[in-house]
C-alpha cells in the first residue's frame, strides 16, 4: 500500500481535493506538523509521496522559525533522490530554495483572490497542467512572496501579477504557487486563520467567500483530473497507484 506524508504549517491548510484522489489510489496518508515535528528524524525518502503545504511564514525567516532550515534540508534530499514531491504555495517556495533559487517579497503586492493561470513557456513539461488552464477554471492565489525559477526546472504556469506560478523538475517534482486543492466550505477556516492578513490587504471577505463558492464549482473536478494525471506521470503505469 503506497504512503503519503503531508507536511503542514497551519492546520487548516490541508490536502483538500488531493486527499480523496490519494485515497482512491490506495494511499495511506499521514499528516505531520512541520512546525513541531522532529524533521531531522523524518526519513525524507520513506513515503512514496511527500506533499509540502502552505503557510503564512516566509522561507527566508529561518532565524525566527528554525524548523524551516530542517524542512529545506529534508526537501533537498528528497529532490536529490528524485522521489515524488508536491509543494503548494509555501511548499513551492521551500522547493525553490532547496534547489538553489531565491525567494523574496513580491514587488507587486499581495496576490489574494481568484483568477485564472496561464501556461508557462514550458507547460508541455507537465501535461496535467492543461486541466487547470481551461477557460472556465480559476484558482485561488494567496501569497505575498515569490521565487526565481530554479536551475534546470521547467516553467509551467504564470499570472500577470507574478509570472512564476509553477515549475516542475522532471515528472517527480511539482511546485505550485497557487492553490488548486482548496474547497469552498473548508476556506471558512482560512478567513478566520488569516484574518489579520486579509484586513491588512483590505480584502473584502464577503466577496472572497462568494468567489470561492462560484469558482470551486469548476475547480473541483478540474483539480481532481489534474491530480490523477500528475500521479500517473509521477508513478508510471506500473506503480500500482
Question: How would you sum up this structure, described in words?
Answer:
The chain has a single domain (3-235), classed as Rossmann fold. Helices cover 31% and strands 21% of the residues. It has helices spanning 18-24, 67-80, 90-98, 187-193, 195-200, 205-235; strands at 3-8, 28-33, 49-52, 85-88, 103-105, 111-115, 118-119, 139-143, 145-147, 154-158, 166-169, 173-176. The strands form three sheets. An eight-stranded mixed sheet has the order 2-1-3-4-12-11-10-7, with helices on both faces. Strands 5-9 form a two-stranded antiparallel ribbon. Helix 2 crosses helix 3 (90-98). The mean pLDDT is 96.
Relevant terms:
241 residues; alpha/beta; two-stranded antiparallel ribbon; 21% strand
Q: Write the H/E string, N to C.
A: EHEEHEHEEEEEEEEHHH
Helix content: 25-40%
Q: How large, in whole angstroms, is the Cα Rg?
A: 16 Å
CATH-derived topology: Rossmann fold
Calculate the mean pLDDT score and round it: 96
What count of helical segments does DSSP give?
Answer: 6
Spans where pLDDT lies below 50 across 5 or more residues:
none
Largest sheet, in brief, is: 8 strands, mixed
Oligomer: single chain
Main CATH class: Alpha Beta
In CATH, what is the homologous superfamily? Answer: Class I glutamine amidotransferase (GATase) domain
| Biggest sheet: strand arrangement | 2-1-3-4-12-11-10-7
The count of DSSP E runs of length 2 or more, i.e. the number of strands, is 12
Judging from the principal axes of the Cα atoms, what is the shape? globular
Q: Give the termini separation.
A: 9 Å
CATH architecture annotation name: 3-Layer(aba) Sandwich
> What number of domains?
1
Q: Which structural category fits the helices and strands?
A: alpha/beta
The portion of residues forming beta strands comes to 15-25%
